[in-house]
Amino acid sequence: MSTHPHDDLAERFRALGVRDIECLFPDVSGYPRGKLMPAAAFARGQELRIAQAIPMQCVTGEYSYDPIFPDADPDVRLVPDLATLRPVPWASTPRWMAIHDCIELDGRPCAFAPRQVLQAVLARYAERGLTPVVAPEIEFYLTAPNTDPAKPLTAPVGRSGRAEVGQSAFSLNLLNELAPFWDAFHAAIDTLGIRGDTWIHEVGCSQYEINLLHGDALAVADQAFLFKLAAKEVALQHGLNAVFMAKPISGEAGSSMHLHQSVVDAQGRNIFTDASGADTPALGHFIAGLQAYGPDLMLVYAPFVNSFRRYVSGSQAPTTLAWGRDNRTVGLRVPTSSPVARRVENRIAGADANPYLAIAASLAAGLAGLEEELAPTEPVQGNGYDETHGLPRTFLAAHERMAHSPHAARLMGADFVRAYLAVKALEHDSYLNHISEWERRFLAPQA
Q: Is the CB of residue 109 less than 8 Å from the CB of residue 121?
């Protein structure tokens, strides 16, 4: 029997010819960061460190100088979750990967690391004998190569020899148009242990959606993180781009990451229904928590300037936190289901949201509703777009809402919220320094 959890790995790696291990973790944007380690060193359990600031790297590559980040720029340890150890499907030589936790040198979880933020929320559920169950629906676009970011993204040329022009929602022919990519992608997610469910062509031109099967919240967040990585890697192998921006193409549908959530007790029973199959008060409390605290956490669901372009009335992207039964015009939908599958679908987050943080925010708000026994609004029966817009409508409004929230710190962690706000402010400053095509088109001749 092995005396160390890593002891059997060295022989396993040798037998498979594995040379390196990708030691990765999600940063604040859900982007993979980390280091490449020799397989033999990984198998020995060699300690791996990285600067504490890396989980909070801006999408621009910059770092905030907010005092929440120590001037000394200390290290954190990268500790592998061996349950996530998998072969890298797109590697040219045998290589494996493992998702790592960021742990401070004194043993505390790093407050700035998204995976640890989610773990902290899940610990609060566990203290109450509860376990969340989550299933994400992830939308994205496949586009032609784009070497000049000043030019719009365009649909790729498929097996027909021409690019898609739209109006092909739920088409199986066009789902097959890029068959070599889908075959390779399906094989890749199987290798990575990503439990895909249904696949569809979505409303947008070359837009697709894949649903992941419901499961443990941390495991599902890991799968969503690797899903995005796999889509991008496999797309590049096929001369494509996989794009998870919330609104990548003008005039086309936005891309969402709907989160289906339920909660089970210590006996595995769904707390949203009773023995007769009727809804319990817990369902209403959970919904009310999402309604009460969702606006304060909007910057997590919509983390970039582009994110807010998705929230358009009549587009099936929500503009309120109203709720309804089997109603896609509201932000919180309770799908028609069997009692055991009773759940709340949070439709607010975009595909660009960090899955760890979006799931953490939604679960934290729902748990607060349960603990405080909050009461939800009445369900919307008709068109949710007729309701008053109840969400921050711009990046700056969402940033301001979180910065002045009396609740965000207790829901997501005070240090994390301060650091997150600092990073987002820096990204917005970078955006303000960019002169857009719209400004040149309309202001140059007329201003």
A: no
C-beta atoms surrounding 399 within 10 Å: 18
Nearest to 158 by CA among 250, 240, 277: 240
CA-nearest of 124, 115, 161, 163 to 142 is 163
Residue 198 to residue 181: CA distance in whole angstroms: 16
What's the pLDDT tens digit per position in 195-244?
998 889 999 999 999 999 999 999 999 999 999 999 999 999 999 999 99
pTM greater than 0.90 (yes/no): yes
Q: With cut-offs at 50, 70 and 90, classify the pLDDT of residue 2.
A: very low
Convert the pLDDT of each residue in 312-348 to its tens digit. 877 778 889 999 999 988 999 999 999 988 999 999 9
Rounded to whole angstroms, the Cα distance separating 27 from 113 reads 7
Please answer whether residues 284 and 379 qualify as being in contact, where contact means their C-beta atoms are separated by less than 8 angstroms. Answer: no
Residue 212 backbone phi and psi in degrees, to 5: -95, 145
Give just the sign of the alpha carbon dihedral 387, 388, 393, 396.
negative
| Helical packing angle, 414-432 and 395-403, nearest 10° | 150
Structure tokens at 311: 């929230």
CB neighbours (10 Å) of residue 77? 16
Backbone phi, then psi, for 119, in 5-degree steps?
Answer: -60, -35
CB atoms within 10 A of CB 266: 10
Instruction: Say how far apart CA 384 and CA 295 lie, in whole Å.
Output: 17
Q: How far is CA 81 from the centre of its chain?
A: 19
CA distance 256 to 327: 16
What's the rounded Cα separation, in Å, for the pair 110 and 120?
11
Are the C-beta atoms of 156 and 149 separated by less than 8 Å?
no
Contact 132, 365 (CB under 8 A): no
Please report how many Cα atoms fall inside a 13 Å half-sphere around the Cα of residue 106, on the Cβ side. Answer: 4
Judge contact between 175 and 201, C-beta under 8 A.
Answer: yes
- E-assigned strand segments in 105-180: 131-143
Amino acid at 362: S
Tokens 């990285």 — which residue?
Answer: 50
- Report the distance separating Cα 415 and Cα 373, nearest Å: 27
Start-end of H helices in 17-87: 39-43
Q: Up-side HSE of residue 302: CA atoms within 13 Å toward CB? A: 30
The distance of Cα 212 from the centroid of its chain, to the nearest Å, equals: 12
What 3-state class would DSSP assign to 346? strand
The position carrying tokens 């995976």 is 115
Structure tokens at 74: 């200390």
